[in-house]
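Can you make up a polypeptide sequence alongside its tokenized fold?
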Amino acid sequence: MTHTRTYTLLNAWAETTPHACPPNCDKPHAHVGDPCDAAQCDEALVADEVCYSVTELDRNEAGREPWVCWRHIRPDDGPIRTRTDV
């Protein structure tokens, strides 16, 4: 899904829900527990919580797209959850 709204901190171009994969999964998608790729963010990507790829960041050290937590895209809205029971 592509965003058309411009957000205040980073411009998102895609959103996803992190995958719960076995350890050492080398697939290029966002993983549950991966660190947020925004500078000075100590948060990890959370299951069932939408995260975002942004235009300002280069691929990370593993060569994967950088995914950031909701705090940098929708700081006033809070996390968007794909399930309401989490």
Remarks:
- Confidence is low (pLDDT under 50) at residues 1-7.
- The chain has no helices and three strands.
- Residues 1-86 form one domain.
- Residues 28 and 64 are 5 Å apart (CA to CA).
